[in-house]
Amino acid sequence: MLGLGLVAVSLLVGCSDDKDPNAAKAVPALEVEAAQCLLVTDALGATVTDLPVVPCSDPLHTHEIFAKVLYTPQDLFPGMAALETFAEGECYARFEKYVGVNVFDSKYFVSWIVPSLDSWNQKVNPDYAVLCVLGDKTNTPLGKGSVKGNKQ
């Protein structure tokens, strides 16, 4: 998803060597919450287990997670089409409350990260969460601070 599109959580992606205190921290996707910011580069693949989290005060952050929504847990993986349909509806519905403007009038795009078959079927800590993510339509950093309530 990055241009975030649709990303399934599954493969390991490194974000930093943790020696630079200003570098993105590789945070497990299952631990990321709403209102966290990301510094996404081309190194981030289509499937991830870790996300490159930075403080929203970092003026170079490229994406912001604006919602974390749980898909109703089921024994069987519902399939990517069902997860994508669910994510699209939930993320578009939550965008205006977070940013303060309708997504169609906004300078931001909406995307999401959905569980993969592998993360869904984990025996310990299965993944049923959809992360709703926004970024600037011009593919530029979001600037210093969260976009929450900025009505752009």
Plain-language structure description:
- The protein contains 2 helices and 8 strands; from the N terminus they run ββββββαβαβ.
- The protein has 152 residues and is α+β, with helices and mostly antiparallel strands.
- It has one domain (6-136).
- It has an 8-stranded mixed β-sheet.
- The relative contact order is 0.24.
Write the layout of secondary structure elements.
Layout: E1 6-9, E2 25-28, E3 37-38, E4 47-48, E5 50-54, E6 63-70, H1 80-99, E7 108-115, H2 117-120, E8 129-136
Parallel strand pairs: 1-4, 1-7
Antiparallel strand pairs: 2-5, 3-5, 3-6, 6-8, 7-8
A few lines on this structure:
The protein has one domain (6-136). Helices cover 16% and strands 27% of the residues.
Rg of Cα set: 15 Å
Helix and strand element order: EEEEEEHEHE
Query: How many helix segments?
Result: 2
Shape descriptor reads: globular
**How many strand segments?**
8
Largest sheet: 8 strands, mixed
Structural class assignment: alpha+beta
> How many domain regions?
1
Give the percentage of residues in beta strands. 25-35%
Distance between the termini: 21 Å
Helix content bin: 10-25%
Mean pLDDT level:
86
**What strand order characterises the main sheet?**
2-5-3-6-8-7-1-4
Offer a few descriptive terms.
single chain; 152 residues; alpha+beta; 8-stranded mixed sheet; 2 helices; 16% helix; globular; disordered N terminus
